[in-house]
Amino acid sequence: MRIKWNLTIDCAHPAKLAEFWALALGYTAKPAPAGFGSWEEWFAHHEIPRDEWDQGAYLCHPDGVGPNLSFLHVPESKVVKNRLHLDVQVGGGRDAPWEVRWPRVVQAVERLAAAGATVIHEYELLGRPDHVMLADPEGNEFCLV
Question: How far apart are CA 129 and CA 23, in angstroms?
């Protein structure tokens, strides 16, 4: 049996962080649940207080093949290194030839750094660059492979 799952990311600025990850992953804003024209309609229907309507943001894979992402506001900031991180295979992953993969990784590093990511470390394997660890605008680590 296949189990559907979503990933939830605690953060200070849900809409801003969702915008970054939409760019990083090619995801789009998740449509409102069936039967509702907008998230605001859904919030109102479920009597969510208006001052909580901006406490989350939601993304989905445009083709519905990846997990949904939720970004939820929390009052505390990130303090330590992640125990779980994403390996974003922008270069095609290690199955792709290095000569094809590495330029894609470099291009993605430049694009995401311009969008607010911070480069933490470039790792080598067998004497040549292999992957890059970055942090998103709120400090969550991830790798580009």
Answer: 24
The answer to whether residues 127 and 133 touch, using CB atoms and an 8 Å cutoff, is no
Cα dist from 126 to 112, 129, 135, whole Å: 26, 8, 25
**Percent of the chain surpassing pLDDT 90:** 86
The DSSP element (H or E) to which 128 belongs, if any, is strand 128-135
Would you tell me which CATH number, out of the four given (3.30.720.120, 3.30.420.40, 1.25.40.10, 3.40.50.2000), belongs to the domain 6-73? 3.30.720.120
pTM of the model: 0.90
pLDDT at 82: 87
Give the residue range(s) of CATH 3.10.180.10 domains in the chain.
86-144
The H-or-E segment that residue 15 falls in is helix 14-25
Q: Using N-to-C axis directions, what is the helix angle for 14-25 and 98-114, rounded to 10°?
A: 160
Position 3 scores a pLDDT of: 86
**H or E element: which one contains 130?**
strand 128-135
Decide yes or no: CATH 3.10.180.10 for domain 86-144: yes
What pLDDT, in 10s, does the model give residues 100-132?
Answer: 999 999 999 999 999 999 999 999 999 999 999
